[in-house]
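ingest -> fold -> write
write: protein_1
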Amino acid sequence: MTSAARPILVLATAIWAMAGHAQVAEPVALEASRDYLLGASLSSGRDPFGTNDQRLGLRPIWAFQLGRFRFATSGASALLAQGRETVDSGLSTVLTRSDRISLSTSLAIDEGRSWKDDPVYSGLPRVRDTVRGRVTAGVTISPRWSATLRASQDLLGRDGGLRLDSGLNYRYPLSPQTHWDLSLGIGWANGTYRQTNYGIAPSAATTTGLQAYALGSGFDGASLGWRMTSALNRNWVAYGGLSVYQLQGAVARSPLATRTTTYGATLGLAYRNN
C-alpha cells in the first residue's frame, strides 16, 4: 500500500467504527432497480486559474441505478436528493447507513486541466486526467443541519495526490416538494495535489518564462452556496443556485491564480422515471 493511500484507509476505518457503534447502523441492501434521470443544466462560472473569462454553458446531466451501484454526473446528485438519498457523482455505492451516520465510496474521473488555449500559460504541461477513489462520511446533526467529510485519492499515480473536503449544510423546507440549502465548504490537499494543480515546476518556468512556484500541503479554498430544489411533479424536478468560491493561503498567491474570488450560477431540469 502506498503512503498516499493510507489516509483514506485510516479515515474509512475510523468512520466505519463509528457507524458500527451506532444503534441502528447496518449494511445497506439497496433494492435492485433500474431507475434513471435525464436532464440538462445551464451554468455560468469562471476558473480562478488562467485568463479565461466568465463562461455560460449547457450540458447534459444524467444518473441511473443498477442494483446497489449508482452512476451520476455532479448535477444529477442535487436532483436525486429531492425526496431521496444524496449520491456522489461517478460510480458510487452506500456501505452503511444509520439515522445519523452514512458511509459511501465512489469512483470519479478528474478531468485535469489543459493550458493550450490560454495565451499566457499555454506552455505549461497539462494536468493529466485521472481516476479518483473517494470515501464520503455524512453526519446528520439535527433535522436541518448536516455535515460531510470526503477523502479522494488519485488511483492512477498521475500526481493527483490526496484531497479532503468538508461541508456544513443547512436545509430549510418550504413545502414537502421544495427546499433550499445553504452550504459552506472547506478544502485541504496534500503537497502532491497542490504542486500539480497550483504550482510551477522549475523546468516549466524555464520553458515559459514564468516564475517557479512550489507549495506544500494545506487548505486551498472555501466555498459558500445557496440552492433551491423542487419536485415539480412525480417525474420532473428542477433546481437553481448561486455560489462563491475563494482561494486560500499559498494557493491564492500562486502565479496561476489570476483571481482569488469567483462566482457561479446554475439552473437544472430533469426527468426521472420513478
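write: protein_2
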Amino acid sequence: MADAPHTPVLTDTPNGQSAEAFFEANPDIEMLEAFMVDVNGVLRGKRVPVSKALSTFKSGMRMPRSAFAVDIWGHDVLEAGLVTQTGDNDGVCRTVAGTLCRTPWMSVPTAQVMMTMQDANGKGFFADPRQVLRRVLNFFQKEGLTPVVAVELEFYLLDSKRDERGFPQPPLSPRTGQRVQASQMFGLGEVEEFGAVLSDINRACALQGIPADTTISENGPGQYEINLYHVPDAMLAADYATLLKRVIKGAARKNGFDATFMAKPYGDKSGNGMHVHFSILDKDGNNIFAGEDYQGSAILRHAIGGLLSVMTESAAVFAPNFNSYRRFMPGSHAPTRIAWGYDNRTASLRVPESELAGTRIEHRVPGADANPYLAIAAMLAGAFHGIQGHMDPGEPLTGSVYESNARHLPDVWEDALEIFEQSGFMKHYFGESYHKVYFACKWSEKDALEHHITSIEYDAYLRDL
C-alpha cells in the first residue's frame, strides 16, 4: 500500500472531462461498453453504438434487476426473489463518475463506463453490490469515520490453449518458447519475460486512471501480483479492483494469453489472493489505528477483535465458491486459521510494519475470486462491529500460525454458507434482503455443482467399480 492517497474525481472521465468532451476528443470510438457488477463480481451490461452513447449518460440504461441475482453461469436464481416474484422488471442504471475511458485492448475503438442501478424512487437498488458496500459505509459516516482502503490482486497468466485433458496450463515464454514451470517469487526475470503484457497493463491503468503501484512475480508459474494505491474512499477502492481485473484480462488477451483470478487454478500451486489493507480516519483526518508505537491503538485491537469474532460468518463472502476452499492449505501462503499477528503473513489478519501514521490491517483471507464490493463491505463491517463493541482480539501470534491451536477457517463451502445463512451480523450489515439474495445465489451454485460428475471421478471409479 503506497503512502500517497489518490483523490477521486466527480466527472465522467478520470481526467475530469465530461462525456460530451470525451467523445469529441475521441472521434474514432465506435462502441461503448456499459456494465455493472453482479453478485459474483462478474461484469454484465450492454454494448451501445456510439451514436446512442450520450443517452446512456443522460437517461441511463435499463437492465433487468434480476441480472444482479444470477449464478456463476449467468442463470437466473429464482429463490433470490428477483425474477418471477417481481415480474422480472427493469431498473435504471446510471453511470459511475470518473469511469468513462478507452479500452485500449479492443480491436475496434471502444470506450467503457461502469454503471450502478437505481430503483423506481431514484435510490440505489439494494441488490447492487455497490449498494451493499454503501450501506456499510453509512455506519462509518454516521460516526464521522472514513475507511482508507487498498487492494492487492494476484492472478495467473495462462496459455490461451488448454492441455490435452482440457485443463489450464502455464504460458509459453515469449523469449524461449518453452512452457513456464518455475515459481520465482519476486523474480525480476519473470517480470521481464512477460514484460509486454505487464507493460500493456500499466499503460491501460494509466489511461483509465487506475492507481496501480508495484508489480511482482508471485509463487506460481506465470503468477503475478499488482498492488493498488490506497484511497480514502472504500467504494473507489472496490471500483479500482474491479476495473484492474478487466484491464488484466484484456491486456492478456491482446498479447495472446488468458488471465485468471480463480482462487486455485492449479491443485499443487499457490492460489490467488486478494489482500486488502485498510485503516480508518477520524473527522480530522487522523488514523485512529495509530498508537504510540508499532503495536497501534486500542481501537486497532478492537477492530481486529471484531474481525476475528465474525470471520466464520463472513467466510462465504471471502471465499464465494467451491474452488475457493482449495486455496486454504497450510504452507500455501494462504491463511487457514482465525488469528492475527504483527507482520505475520501466516495469520488471517496482519498488522504490517509501517510508519505510525500508516498503521493498518491487512486482511489476507479473501481470494481473488471474491466480489471486491462485498468482501470490503464484510471486512469493514467486522471492524466496525469490533470497535463499537470494544472487542478484545486476544494476543497476537508469532511464528507459524498453521501450527497453532487457533480456530480453523471453514474449509467446506456448505459449512460456510450455512453459517452465513444463520448470521445475524451479516443480516444486519448487508441487509436482510441482500442476505437472502446472496445465500440463494451461492446455494444454487453449490447444488448445481453437486449434481455434476467430474472427470476425475470417472477416472477413479468408472472402470474398476
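write: annotation protein_2
The chain is about 30% helix and 20% strand.
The CA atoms of residues 46 and 397 lie 49 Å apart.
pipeline exit 0
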